[in-house]
Automatic annotation (TrEMBL):
Positively regulates primary cilium biogenesis. Also involved in autophagy since it is required for trafficking of ATG16L and the expansion of the autophagic compartment. One of its GO terms (cellular component) is cytosol. Pfam families: ANAPC3, TPR_12, TPR_6, TPR_8. Keywords: Cell projection, Cilium, Cilium biogenesis/degradation, Cytoplasm, Cytoskeleton, Flagellum, Repeat, TPR repeat. It comes from Canis lupus familiaris. The lineage of its organism: Eukaryota, Metazoa, Chordata, Craniata, Vertebrata. This is Intraflagellar transport protein 88 homolog. Residues 722-735 have a biased composition (Polar residues).
Amino acid sequence: MMQNVHLAPETDEDDLYSGYNDYNPTYDTEELENDTAFQQAVRTSHGRRPPITAKIPSTAVTRPVATGYGSKTSLASSMGRPMTGAIQDGVTRPMTAVRGSWFYQSSFESPEEKIRQLEKKVNELVEESCIANSCGDLKLALEKAKDAGRKERILVRQREQVTTPENINLDLTYSVLLNLASQYSANEMYAEALTTFQVIVKNKMFSNAGRLKVNMGNIYLKQRNYSKAIKFYRMALDQIPSVHKEMRIKIMQNIGVTFIKTGQYSDAINSFEHIMSMAPNLKAGFNLILSYFAVGDRDKMKKAFQKLIAVPLEIDEDDKYISPSDDPHTNLVIEAIKNDRLRQMERERKAMAEKYIMTAAKLIAPVIETSFAVGYDWCVEVVKASQYVELANDLEINKAITYLRQKDFNQAVETLKMFEKKDSRVKSAAATNLSFLYYLENEFAQASSYADLAVNSDRYNPSALTNKGNTVFANGDYEKAAEFYKEALRNDSSCTEALYNIGLTYKRLNRLDEALDCFLKLHTILRNSAQVLYQIANVYELMEDPHQAIEWLMQLISVVPTDSRALSKLGELYDSEGDKSQAFQYYYESYRYFPSNIEVIEWLGAYYIDTQFCEKAIQYFERASLIQPTQVKWQLMVASCFRRSGNYQKALDTYKDIHRKFPENVECLRFLVRLCTDIGLKEVQEYATKLKRLEKMKEIREQRIKSGRDGSEGPRSRREGSASSDSGQNCSASSKGERLSAKLRALPGTNEPYESSSNKEIDASYVDPLGPQIERPKTAAKKRIDEDDFADEELGDDLLPE
């Protein structure tokens, strides 16, 4: 074999492709069995690689190819052609610049290298899963975690084939399983999460896996399996050494919270008392107060509140962020750290502490003493002696709000008036609330006075400016009110009350386009606000765009589907568009949720009459008569429905009942005369006599009123207008006489068909809605949705956050 290897010549020759026609000794197979290099190549993967040929010559430099022995010699190809870059018969062959394919390169990768690449891929998948979880894509995070688990199992099998089991990367397996369990839990797949956690906990090769029982306890807590949650928390507590103090405290806090959920307050108190004695924190202190409040122990509530107040915040003072000198470098550093992440965390911690203390004070103040006022005073004194001294004023304001909730208006006002001599911030807050209270009492002068005080104390208080705008709005100065609302928005762009009130102001000024812009902006902030949706629909209605109004009202009823006013408004708009079926649907829904709206009842009754279903209209008019028993027209409508449906006896009984309740009602007597005449009853003469007497009395009464009105005029006016007055009186008397004659002639004779009486004129004060000339409730004359129903015209007033 070695006789076929030629040395490279010292100099290149011109004919680079010579020797192709020569006999290639590679085809000599007689000595292959004795060729050690060939036999070695056959037994290894090197001999199974595909042949490498070059069809196009390249300018690559000459490089010898290594053999299986590592010697840098040129081998002839299996096709009899010299290998690329080899030398045959003293001629140098050009080497190709094309690299070997990937599968050729991979054939040289060792198993250890493949394992390292797979391990790297598993780590990347775990990292991608965690990133997806932090971004909120829980589904993708779970898919990545599952993929990491599958590849990690493949990795373990490959390691077992190459190395001993002791060399398996247990840390990687642990992290993959833990991440998978966490992603199952985040996706609320609690059964799969518990199974995965059990795999980790039961594997003795994982050190400190017992602490994961805390995670299992958390899952049982979410499943409301409190007994198992407590069991796993305690098992975790037993397996965590005492040196891990912080973790043990957190587990004990979980145990205490679980005891509260199960109502075992004494056990919860023991847990939280231990925490407050070992490492006091805000959450444990607040939960301890809740536990004592649940068992009603006043003295312990006071002590727990004092412990909560004493919890150190461990944050820097605000003075740290104030520059002590004019050094530009120092000022630059302070400006940089004034709002960095650490400062934001300190603010959040302080806000959380204030929230816990304020909530605890409001909770225990009414029960720790004989009255809530004394309890608040005690809490205020304790707070004043602590590091949270600025919270004392807020507690006093909350005391006033509690008075307000108890409808003790005078005490609320007196409490707030105590702040008139305080610093500007507190004074502005108290004056804002006083302005709000007086505004609700319609004492606009006092409300305006305190609004001025609030604005003068703090010109940048948006609540004060809003209340000032409200008082100006109440006095009808809408332009000036809009200026105050705009200033409030400039100080705080998130003041939704001011933006809402600007919309109302523009609506009063008939600047509907600007009002619509305000409410649409507000809609982007408060997506599901019923008031805002109604205002948009109302503005479109005022702009005579009923289709848009209907569309926004449909959105409104999707938010408040049981609001009867919104449903009746939809019915009104559909009725104005001529769509009676849709109008009936929404009017009926409105009646179903609130069966006491007279307008809706009247429309439904008239609808059934219009569709010739008088029997169904009866129930609506009967309900109307119950709601307004002094209004005779509803009972007359009931009787008329009976008459129209052919139930004359029931109609007669109804008219008689009406006559007993309203003996001077002319319409009732007229129908009684008609019915008795048609039926042939003897009472007809009695009712006819009463009818004539009442009509005569009515005529005399009208003449007296007319003469009294004429007598009140001066002599000069009589002389100047005598001709016209006489003419007017004569015409009036003549018309009354003609109307009376017409009424009398309208009474049916005994032989006249009953149905013909429906066309006759009756009194102008009552038009029978059942005759051919029926007057339906007109949508144009209907009252629009009351401003108080949605509080739509109520100005947005501000109370400071409690």
